[in-house]
C-alpha cells in the first residue's frame, strides 16, 4: 500500500494523518509564519472541466463537509451478494474515499447493512479465514477478506475480494510486533478514517501482487486460528485487487476529473470518475496532448525540486489532502503548513520510468489561512514532507488525471502510467 494523507477539520483546527512513504504533519492553528520568503507569481489555474457523470461508465465525485475532512473526494458504490451479477442483497455505500494511491476496495463492516454483510462469503487459504492488514503509515486497516459483487454505474466486478475492516467475525486483534502490521495505529472505525471505506483505483492490479503470491509477507495477509494470526502466502485470485481490473469492459484505467475551485477555497467541489481509457467517446486519451508519465507499478517516479533529487518517491495521489514536499524557500507555520505572503507558483521536474520528463507546476497559498476559512476544497494547500513529493488533491482541480493500470493497453501503450490534461 502507499499513501493516505489527510486533514480533519475540527473547530478551526486541522489534524493531518500521514501515510506510507513517511513524513507528513499534524495540526495547525491560526499561528503566524516563522520565517519569510520571496514570492513568485502564481501560475494560472488549470481549466479542464469534467465530462457528465450520468454516462454508463461514470460516477460523481464530491468533496464536501460530509466527513469533516478537507479535500476528501468521495464516491458511492453498490455491493451485492457475490456471483449474482450485482442483482441480489445489494446495498449502496456512500462516502467512500476515492484513492488513486492505493489498490482495492475496503469497507468498514459498520457501514455495510446486515442483509448484505451476511451474504459476503469469507475468503479462505488452506481452509482458514483470510485476514489482511493494509498499512497507510499513520494507521492500518484490519479485517477479513470477503467476496462481493461491486456495481458502479453500469460497471460490475463479480465475485470481487474486498477487505471488510473491523469485521465482527474476526476475533483476532490486529497483529503487532515482529510479525505484525507495518506501522501506525489501528483505524478501526469510520470516524478514524473520515469515510465509510477506501476505493483504491491506482496503477497497480493487486494490493500486494507477486510478493504475496510467492511467499508470506509480514504486514500483509494472515490466517488466524483463534487469537493467533500468522503471515501467509496468497494466490493472486484470493488477493484484494484493483476493482477496475475486474470490470468486463472499461478496465484498463480510470480518469479523475474535477471542476476548478476558487484560490481561497470552496465549501464543496464536484467532479467525475470515468472508467476506461480510450474505450469510449468520453474517456479519450488519444489526441488530447496530455502530459504522459510512465511509472512503477505503484505509480511512483523520480523527481527533482529545489536542488534535491527523489528516487521513486514522487507521485500523484487523490488520497492526499495537500501538496506534500520539502521547500527551503517557502515560509512555514506551525506543524508544517506553508504560509507564503502571497500565492506562489512552484515547479518540480518529474522523470518517468522511460526517461521522459515533465515540469509539474502547482501553487501554494497560506495554509493556515486556508484551513481556518471553513472551506473544504483547496487547490493550493501545501505541507512540508521530507522524503518525497506527494502531489495530492489540490493538483486535481481543473484537470483530467489519467491512471493507466499496469499491463493494460491504451493509445499511449501499456500501463502503468499517469497522464494529465490541464485545459
From TrEMBL:
Name of the protein: Lipoprotein
PROSITE patterns reported for this sequence: PROKAR_LIPOPROTEIN
Keyword Signal annotated: yes
InterPro entries in the record: DUF3443, Peptidase_aspartic_dom_sf
Signal peptide: 1-18
Annotated keywords: Signal
Signal as UniProt keyword: yes
